[in-house]
Automatic annotation (TrEMBL), chain A:
UniProt similarity note: Belongs to the adaptor complexes medium subunit family.
Domain (MHD): residue spans on this chain: 170-426
Name by which UniProt lists this protein: MHD domain-containing protein
Gene Ontology CC annotations of this record: clathrin adaptor complex; clathrin-coated vesicle membrane
Keyword Membrane found: yes
Organism annotation: Rubroshorea leprosula
From TrEMBL, chain B:
Subunit field text: Adaptor protein complexes are heterotetramers composed of two large adaptins (beta-type subunit and alpha-type or delta-type or epsilon-type or gamma-type subunit), a medium adaptin (mu-type subunit) and a small adaptin (sigma-type subunit).
Region of interest called Disordered, as start-end residue ranges on this chain: 1-41
Record key words, sorted: Membrane, Protein transport, Transport
GO biological process assignments: intracellular protein transport; vesicle-mediated transport
UniProt function note: Subunit of clathrin-associated adaptor protein complex that plays a role in protein sorting in the late-Golgi/trans-Golgi network (TGN) and/or endosomes. The AP complexes mediate both the recruitment of clathrin to membranes and the recognition of sorting signals within the cytosolic tails of transmembrane cargo molecules.
Protein name, as recorded: Beta-adaptin-like protein
Length: 428, 844
């Protein structure tokens, strides 16, 4: 990485320094705090502020997580992308340690925070950022009554993401195949954009140093092995692996083999840009009956096979900001008016495939409208849902083999689920 | 594992003095310090934690220094860690107290437990107290040889910390050499990575004073080192991988096989889960293949998918950083994403910094095939989302219109904007329609019909108002009401706060007058009167100017103010291609986000390895720094660019190679004429029907505007075969690079005249003098009697550079010159020019 970080700050929602670590001594806390408080005051809406800002010779990069800002300050020409990634990693590590990263949890754990900041970065250069590995260095509270100190393992270890000597009574692996559907439909009902982002999320509870091998219905692999594909194979685009996967091996023969880290991690992510049929289709009609009454009629249709069922469906329908006195009827589920987001939220617990449900809502709006009232902010209809036991891409785990030299039998559990990602229909 | 919330929560934001708490803690610590009772460590821990919390929330607990050090005599690692923290925080302000801690830190550096050894060493090196440096060398030396990799890893960075406290101590102890060996031999990858970071920093900083260090720095880029690190890359952690990749991107491959080997080796890095690694790999690919056009194109194809995934998955900050890079790539290769434009459609709840960049991307990727879809999408934003973004998207539509050949569809859209009757939309659209008409006058009929319907009362923003008024003046023959609208506007002259609008009003009413004299005469009179009484000097002067012009001769006035216009072919690009290349060199850094090369936003001492250092950086630059020279030249260059409004495309055709657009030596006089008349409405004195006069006029303009016509005395006549470019531009990095690469063409000694020596008391004078002879100074330094200057010059008709190092000793009146040249054959001729220029220095 080109350029080192001068200091790392954790700030509260008003931009005051909670904790900071001075790595190189060329940016002061007061300087940074003065800059940052001014920045968020001026902007009013900190969300619209670029995450990289230059002020008086210093570059500040920040991200927000709940009510805390994490910010680096640097006087050098740093690697912007890399540092922003790094900050997100810091969030992950803190979350691992404190469950939730927020002002309160930081205040309760100053000592651990300092320890972590010291181990993750030295003199402005990132060091280890794997939560599990850091556990070797972080002593406070974790090792209260330790008798003999072990030297940190990972650092002397060939596999930097896994410590040796892990033991579980029951050896289990959970593999979740999660696909998120992003879709954008314009006001003519055309799909402007759609893609699927998938992830294989793993939780491993395995003893020793297990060798894992994962088999997917990857078209390239199956064709290479000369098997008939029968339309079940899939083309994965732009696959990315966790660092534990032997990439060279994958390049050679498309085998996914790895020694997993302990605990949960994302084994692999992929993207498909093939056109996807909207799994849940929503049509809406708005009628202005008079100057003071608006009626919305909404039809929601599930467009997947009947044997699947979408759960926790949430359809967010935008309504005028000054609407009041809602009167809603639905053929299924319940709808609630959420004035804080100017929307009507229609929730359907269970939505089987091939079904259609209706909603009819009536609102009162003030009959006098301000002449020069601000522009109408027209939001799209947004939909959230989950469809278990189903993937859009058709990806399948053919096998997950676990081999450890002690020869134990491990149980692999595989689940599939499809979720809505950025699912927007600009229909009203 | 987090301790339960304890009672020492920050008392209140109003900051208690904490005095009573501190003295309380003091006595408690004293009690515990001597105690050996069981469980004492636990109570110490609680107390220490309290101290650290107080320290963090800003209560001054430095008074506890002595007690804390006393209590630190323990084997408990948690206590030690907290004590180190405390000491690190207060050592700098209390150097005397810090001395107290040295003893126990040094002892801890030899502890049994490697963890304690490492932590103690880190704390020791972080004290940053200059007079304690002597105590660091021993423990660091041992640390570098420690059997445990954690200690070595800390020690390596410790060396770098030492270097920043006292460079000489670090060098004298031979630490860089030890690090170099460690980098190649150590089994632990993090130790290796830290060695690399430390060496890059140390050697770059040393390179300016020591030949050896600069050789060593180049050595890091040698094939064996780069290959050694690349072969191990899979073992490094992700951040260290970035470091190695960054190094590899600077490696100069020996041949094509080299390039392919590296790319094959790194191909799989594009699949790494960490986006930082992916971006760093992309940088390597792009930079390695710069010289191979075909492969470079293939690289673009290969990196597309990973980049798009990075944009659409992950945090908005990540998208922001990646989009900045995409934008840079698209500017270089517009075709790559032209079919993937849908990835840049905005999501409803994305933060606006991401949306803004996406809009820029959409503008950049628009071409004949996708314009329709993109513009449709942009129109959606104009109507829907928040106002700043709506404005940006209208501007984006305008930009696309100006860069496309087929604008039919877009013009309709813009006109629809005008009819949307939202103030901000109308305002933005008016400005765009104005620019559009300047480029495509053929659309005036359609546009004017719509513009004519807009009531000037609904337009408040100065820019939009000015645009509307400009159109009223320019197309007054087609707009029936034009004179009356203008008249109305003039009536409310006093309420118009923007000088820009008033200026436009004056000009518009003049133009209108020439087209429809009887209807406008009254308004013109009123406008001139109001203008003459205006407090703003530009408005006043312009009114006076028009008034005199009209008095002199109305038909001349018409020729001056309202000549037939030529369409602007391309609007000026504000960034030079040279700057863009610099940014591309610094791919994957802040430069890309800021769209500025790093020398524009970092101080000299904070420039990273390989960026800008060596002699140029460290000479105390007399008067103005090299940076200032460059930026001043750049500004000038930009001004020139604006005036000439030549497109980059055109320049690319004229001048081949990647030399700066501005060193293009001779400006075509006719293009000056044409563009001057386009861009500057008023001074367009040119009249195509009078060729003789016209050329004179051009010269006059040139002189006024300071364009490349030499105002200063030209280089002396004796060596007429070589002409120098009067406004050569070279940035420090290129200079440095060339200086390193080129052999010395000529080395001469020259005696200065006594007048010259006398005048040298102000070295600035020499710089100005040489500039008068088309020889620019890039850096200078030194003190009497020894002065050192770096000059450069460029040939007038081709981008060939001369670089000169000139050392003047004022007591012996001798000047030693080393000349390096792109074109060796002319170096003698250049030397003659240089000497003759030098000989004239100080001669009145």
């Amino acid at each position: 990485m080109a350029g080192a970080v001068s200091a790392l700050f954790l700030l509260d929602i008003k931009g005051r320094v909670l904790v900071w670590r001075d790595y190189r001594g060329d940016v002061s806390a007061t300087q940074a705090e003065r800059f940052f408080t001014k920045l968020i005051e001026k902007e009013g809406d900190p969300e619209s502020q670029d995450p990289v800002v230059y002020d008086n010779g210093v570059t500040y990069m920040f991200i927000q997580h709940s009510n805390v800002y994490l910010m680096t300050a640097s006087r050098q020409n740093c690697n912007a992308a890399s540092l922003l990634f790094f900050l997100h990693r810091v969030v992950d590590v803190f979350k691992h340690y404190f469950e939730e990263l927020e002002e309160e949890s930081l205040r309760d754990n100053f000592v651990v925070v300092y320890e972590l900041l010291d181990e993750m970065m030295d003199f402005g250069y990132p060091q280890y950022t794997e939560a599990k590995i850091l556990g070797e260095f972080i002593k406070t509270d974790a090792y209260r009554m330790e008798v003999a100190q072990r030297p940190p393992m990972a650092v002397t270890n060939a596999v930097s993401w896994r410590s040796e000597g892990i033991v579980y009574k029951k050896n289990e692996v959970f593999l979740d195949v999660v696909e998120k559907v992003n879709i954008l439909v314009n006001s003519n009902g055309q799909i402007i954009r759609s893609d699927v982002v998938g992830a294989l999320k793993m939780r491993t509870y395995l003893s020793g140093m297990p060798e894992c091998k994962l088999g997917l219905n990857d078209r390239v692999l199956l064709e290479a092995q000369g098997r008939a594909t029968k339309g079940k194979a899939i083309d994965l685009e732009d696959i990315k692996f966790h660092q534990c996967v032997r990439l060279a091996r994958f390049e050679n023969d498309r085998t996914i083999s790895f020694i997993p880290p302990d605990g949960s991690f994302d084994l692999m992510t992929y993207r498909l840009s093939t056109q996807v049929k909207p799994l849940i289709w929503v049509e809406a009609q708005v009628e202005r009956h008079s100057r003071s009454r608006v009626e919305i009629m909404v039809k929601a249709r599930s467009q997947f096979k009947e044997r699947s069922t979408a759960t926790n469906v949430e359809i967010e329908l935008p309504v005028p900001a000054d609407a009041s006195n809602p009167n809603v009827r639905t053929s299924m589920g319940s709808a609630a008016y959420a004035p804080e987001s100017d929307a009507l939220v229609w929730k359907i617990k269970s939505f089987p495939g091939g079904k259609e449900y209706m909603l009819r809502a009536e609102f009162r709006i003030p009959s006098i409208t301000a002449e020069d009232g601000g522009p109408e902010r027209k939001a799209p209809i947004r939909v959230k849902f989950e469809i278990p036991y189903f993937t859009v891409s058709g990806i399948q785990v053919r096998y997950l083999k676990i081999i450890e030299k002690s020869g134990y039998q491990a149980l692999p559990w595989v689940r599939y689920i499809t979720m809505a990602g950025e699912y927007e229909l600009r229909l009203i | 594992m987090a301790p339960p919330a304890q009672s020492q929560r920050s008392p209140s934001p109003s900051q208690p003095s904490g005095k009573s708490e501190v003295s309380d803690l003091k006595s408690q610590l004293r009690q515990l310090a001597g105690s050996r009772a069981p469980g004492v460590d636990d109570s110490k821990r609680d107390l220490f934690k309290k101290v650290i919390s107080y320290m963090t929330i800003g209560i001054d607990v430095s008074a506890l220094f002595g007690e804390m050090v006393m209590c630190s005599a323990t084997s408990d690692i948690v206590l030690k860690k907290m004590c180190y923290l405390y000491v690190g925080n207060y050592a700098k302000v209390n150097p005397d107290l810090a001395l107290l801690t040295i003893n126990f830190l040094q002892k801890d550096c030899q502890d049994q437990d490697p963890m304690i050894r490492g932590l103690a060493l880190r704390s020791l090196c972080s004290l940053r107290v200059a007079n304690l440096v002597e105590y660091l060398v021993g423990p660091l030396g041992l640390g570098l040889k420690d059997s445990n990799s954690y200690v070595r890893m800390v020690a390596v960075i410790g060396v770098l910390k030492l270097y920043h406290i006292s460079a000489s101590t670090c060098i004298d102890a031979d630490f860089p050499v030890i690090l170099k060996n460690l980098m190649i031999t150590d089994s632990d990858t993090q130790v290796v990575a830290n060695c690399l970071s430390a060496l890059q920093e140390i050697w770059s900083a040393e390179a300016s004073t020591s030949e050896e260090a600069s050789r060593e720095r180049e050595g890091l880029l040698s094939k064996p080192i780069v290959y050694f690190l690349l072969n191990k890359i899979r073992e490094f952690n992700e951040w260290a991988q970035c470091l190695v990749l960054e190094l590899a991107a600077k490696y100069v491959p020996s041949d094509n096989n080299d390039i392919f080997d590296i790319m094959n080796l790194l191909e799989d890095r594009l699949q790494h889960a960490n986006g930082a690694v992916v971006l760093a790999t992309i940088k390597v690919f792009l930079h390695l293949t710069l010289s191979m056009t075909d492969v470079h194109q293939q690289v673009y194809e290969r990196i597309k998918a990973p980049l798009l995934t990075l944009v659409s998955s992950g945090s908005p900050e990540q998208s922001y950083a990646v989009l900045s890079h995409l934008h840079l790539l698209v500017m270089r290769a517009p075709f790559i994403f032209s079919s993937d434009y849908k990835h840049f459609y905005c999501q409803y709840n994305e933060p606006s910094y991401v949306k803004k960049l996406k809009l820029e991307m959409l503008t950049a990727v628009a071409n004949e095939s996708n314009t329709y879809e993109i513009v449709t999408e942009l129109c959606e934003y104009a109507a829907n989302v928040d106002i700043p973004i709506a404005r940006e998207s209208i501007r984006a539509v305008g930009k696309i219109a100006l860069q496309q050949y087929d604008v039919n569809a877009i013009v309709d859209r813009l006109l629809q904007f005008l009819e949307m009757e939202k103030d901000y939309v109308t305002a933005e659209a008016l400005v765009l329609v104005k620019d559009l008409l300047r480029k495509y006058p053929q659309w005036s009929h359609d546009c004017i019909a719509v513009v004519g319907n807009i009531s000037s009362k609904n337009v408040q923003e100065p820019k939009a108002k000015a645009a509307l008024i400009w159109m009223l003046g320019e197309y007054s023959q087609d707009m029936q009401d034009a004179p009356y609208i203008l008249e109305g506007l003039i009536e409310s002259w006093d309420e118009e706060h923007s000088a820009e609008v008033r200026l436009h009003l004056l000009t518009a009413v003049m133009k209108c007058f020439f087209k429809r004299p009887p209807e406008t005469q009254k308004a013109l009179g009123a406008a001139l009167a109001a203008g003459l009484a205006d407090f703003h000097q530009d408005v006043h002067d312009r009114a006076l100017f028009y008034y005199r012009l009209l008095q002199h001769n109305v038909s001349v006035a018409e020729r001056v103010v309202n000549p037939p216009k030529q369409a602007v072919s391309v609007f000026a690009d504000t960034q030079s291609s040279e700057i863009k290349d610099r940014i591309f060199d610094e791919f994957n850094s802040l430069s890309v986000v800021y769209q500025k090369p790093s020398y524009m936003f970092t101080d000299k001492e904070h420039r990273g390895p390989f960026e800008f250092s060596e002699e140029l950086g460290n000479l105390s630059i007399a008067g103005e720094s090299a940076d200032n020279v460059v930026s001043a030249q750049r500004v000038e260059a930009n001004d020139k660019d604006l005036l000439l409004s030549t497109s980059e495309k055109e320049e690319a055709k004229i001048s081949t190679g990647n030399d700066s657009a501005y060193s293009a030596p001779m400006y075509d006089a006719s293009s000056v004429l044409v563009t001057a008349s386009q861009t500057l409405m008023e001074p367009a004195i040119s009249n195509p029907t009078l060729p003789g006069q016209a050329t004179q006029a051009i010269l006059a303009i040139d002189d006024l505007l300071g364009l490349g016509i030499p105002a200063a005395p030209a280089p002396p006549p004796p060596p007429p075969q070589l002409k120098l470019h009067t406004r050569a531009v070279l940035d420090p990095a290129t200079f440095q690079q060339k200086w390193r690469q080129l052999p010395v063409a000529l080395s001469q000694e020259y005696s200065l005249s006594p007048q010259g020596i006398a005048a040298l008391t102000a070295p600035q004078a020499l710089l100005r003098h040489m500039q008068g002879h088309s020889i620019q100074c890039i850096a200078s330094g030194g003190q009497s009697p020894n002065f050192k200057f770096f000059f450069f010059a460029q040939k007038a008709e081709e981008p060939s550079n001369y670089l000169v190092e000139c050392i003047i000793n004022s007591s012996s009146a001798k000047a030693q010159m080393k000349i390096k040249a792109d074109d060796q054959s002319t170096s003698q001729a250049f030397s003659d020019i240089f000497q003759s220029a030098l000989s004239k220095f100080g001669v009145p």
